[in-house]
């Protein structure tokens, strides 16, 4: 989906004409268009062809455009405004910039609060749990190790568990 706007021909930064989107929408608005044709028609009808051009916004420039509008105190975006209807005071479809910014902030907040852990951090490590039948001593150790000994005999494997790396604690096998 592409978005087109009208911006000043000779300026490096995006600079859109600001207008009131109809008498009943007195807020300062900038226009955004869903097709290049609608944007060109508006440009023509407004008589701005000498000073302004139609550009397609990519995602980067869209955010720059929104930020520039906000810093200019613009309150809304008129969607596919019709120049003649607008001049006769007809209501145009508008999006609140404040609402839009709140929505974007909500998306960013959610992404921050649900950021995945660093790669590999959630990999679980299997550990073996050995138990001494004589004294009840419990030892956890990595599966690749030899069975520990306690009370002069090899301890028995009694369970498996999984832990996160860093949570692994290897009990020291009591010597005799
Ligand atoms: Zn023991």
Describe this structure in words.
The chain has 176 residues and is an alpha+beta fold. It has 2 domains: 3-113, Uncharacterised protein PF11572, DUF3234 (Trna Endonuclease, Chain: A, domain 1, 3-Layer(aba) Sandwich); 118-176, no CATH class. Helix content is 26%, strand content 28%. It contains 4 helices and 11 strands; from the N terminus they run E-E-E-H-E-H-E-H-E-H-E-E-E-E-E. The protein has helices spanning 36-46, 59-71, 83-87, 97-113, and strands at residues 3-8, 19-20, 28-33, 52-57, 76-79, 94-96, 125-131, 138-141, 149-150, 153-154, 156-163. Strands 1, 2, 3, 4, 5 and 6 form a 6-stranded mixed sheet that branches. A 3-stranded antiparallel sheet has the order 8-7-11, with no helix packed on it. The chain is rod-shaped, with a radius of gyration of 33 Å. The N and C termini lie far apart (74 Å). Bound molecules: zinc ion. Zinc ion binds next to loops.
The amount of helix comes to 25-40%
Provide the domain count: 2
Per the CATH scheme, the topology name of the largest domain is: Trna Endonuclease, Chain: A, domain 1
CATH class call of the largest domain = Alpha Beta
How can the largest sheet be summarized?
6 strands, mixed
Cα gyration radius (Å): 33 Å
Oligomer: single chain
Order of helices and strands: EEEHEHEHEHEEEEE
What structural category do the secondary elements indicate? Answer: alpha+beta
The overall pLDDT average reads 85
CATH architecture of the largest domain: 3-Layer(aba) Sandwich
């Amino acid at each position: 989906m592409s978005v087109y706007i009208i911006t000043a021909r000779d300026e490096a930064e995006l600079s859109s004409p600001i207008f009131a989107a109809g008498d009943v929408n007195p807020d300062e608005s900038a226009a955004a268009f869903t097709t290049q044709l609608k944007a060109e028609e508006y440009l023509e009808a407004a008589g701005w062809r000498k000073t302004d051009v139609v550009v397609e916004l990519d995602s980067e420039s869209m955010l720059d455009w929104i930020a520039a509008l906000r810093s200019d105190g613009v309150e809304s975006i008129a969607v596919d405004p019709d120049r003649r209807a607008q001049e006769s005071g007809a209501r145009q479809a508008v999006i609140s910039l404040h609402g839009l910014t709140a929505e974007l902030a909500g998306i960013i907040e959610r992404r921050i609060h649900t950021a995945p852990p660093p790669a590999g951090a959630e990999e679980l490590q299997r550990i073996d749990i050995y138990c001494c039948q004589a004294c009840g001593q419990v030892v956890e150790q990595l599966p690749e190790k030899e069975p520990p000994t306690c009370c002069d005999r090899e301890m028995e494997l009694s369970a498996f568990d999984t832990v996160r790396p860093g949570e692994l604690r290897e009990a020291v096998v009591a010597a005799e």
